[in-house]
Design goal:
The protein is built from four helices and nine strands. The protein is of the alpha+beta class. The strands form two sheets. Strands 2, 3, 4, 5 and 6 form a five-stranded antiparallel sheet that branches. Helix 1 packs across helix 2.
Length: 163
Amino acid sequence: MASTFSFDVVSDFDRQELVNAVDQTTREIIARYDLKDTKTTLELGEEAIVINTDSEFTLDAIQTILQTKAAKRNLSLKIFDYGKPESASGSRVRQEIKLKKGISSEVAKQITKLIRDEFKKVQGSIQGDAVRVSAKVKDDLQAVMQRLKQEDYPMALQFTNYR
């Protein structure tokens, strides 16, 4: 049994599910009586969502709706990086929510150190914004997955390319 098994630890989200969550949020804003006349806009860009509304109260309500819709679509709430609400023209409030994707180098180093310290027969290597974990026994990889799920990292982790 000379072959090795591996998987990648990545931080990513399903873009189409995010588009659907934003669309559902927009539809609920139009339908809700308390938000109908606020002229709220939600703009989904490549790397951010921009909310433009009339007050901080409605901004909080919209954030709650967006989080609920995202959670129902199995998107982690850790992908949202909320910026500071800022004043926009016409006494409106604007907020940019950056979308987090990829594992930062500091977190990747933490993951590989944890693997090195706790699992002697498993290797972890940083490859760009992902971490490749490899071992000769599949059970060791399963144990690493379970251990990483217990940790609380600032981003959502997924396990891909399991082979």
